[in-house]
Amino acid sequence: MTTRLFYDDSYLREAAGRVVAHTPEGGVVLDATVFYPKGGGQPGDSGRIDWAGGGFAVATAVKGDHGAVVLVPAEPLPLPPPGTEVAQRIDWERRHKHMRVHTALHLLSVVIPLPVTGGAIGAGSGRLDFAMPEPPEDCDAIEEALNDLVDRDLLVTEDWVEDAVLDANPGLVKTMTVQPPRGQGRVRLVRIGEGRQQVDLQPCGGTHVARTGEIGRIRLGKIENKGRQNRRVNLTLD
Fold first, then answer.
1. Rounded distance, CA 215 to CA 238, Å?
2. Alpha carbon of 107 to those of 27, 82, 184, 228: distances in Å?
């Protein structure tokens, strides 16, 4: 299993690592990584790894077997052999945009308290699909409520709980189509706000900003009809 350094510090941009394996497709697995692997609607990180005598650009990171994170080279190049010490660096500007959008989508699920049927995160925009037979009547009110949560500059924190805690509180899971990752005996919860100021608590494996004020201005985009019972709500960030 690759140690996911971004769980301890989502603002970590660089780190050392050691090559533990190659994949048949030409990817590299490190013992520990700052690269977030594609999942939960969030794209995999891009960036670069370097070592004595070589280096390559990382196009993306994906999940591999047995908890591994696989770094995918942008082009076919010689790979560092197992045991090689490397320096890894993510494209921070892109990652930070993903963090802002991902946190903004959590707020969207607060303002529209309906089951979520899908979602996607981009560098500056994102969307959630809701089980919503009819479109909302007042889109301006939704945008205003989102930006009010941003302006409150609420603290965003993470906790790990045992699977049994989530089993006893199924209402924490807002997504209908994607369930929290299981198999390790514990689940990561992302909390927005503290005490009486808490507005959201849900399982999530993505990366987020430390406070909602860091998101910046949210603009509500198009609301699309995605079937008789589904609406897609888009948002963008300034």
1. 9
2. 35, 42, 28, 25
Domain ranges of the chain: 3-90, 95-237
Q: How many CA atoms lie within 13 A of 118 on its CB side?
A: 11
Euclidean distance between the first and the last CA atom of the chain, given in angstroms as a whole number: 37
DSSP, res 227: S
Q: Over the stretch 148-182, which tens digit does the pLDDT of each residue have?
A: 999 999 999 998 887 677 667 766 666 545 555 55
Q: Extract the tokens encoding 168.
A: 């006893």
Dihedral sign from CA coordinates of 175, 178, 179, 182? negative
Give me the mean pLDDT over the 26-48 stretch. 97
CATH number, domain 95-237: 3.30.980.10
Alpha-carbon span 20 to 72, nearest angstrom: 15
Indicate the class that CATH gives domain 3-90.
mainly beta
> Distance (Å, rounded) from C-alpha 236 to C-alpha 122?
9
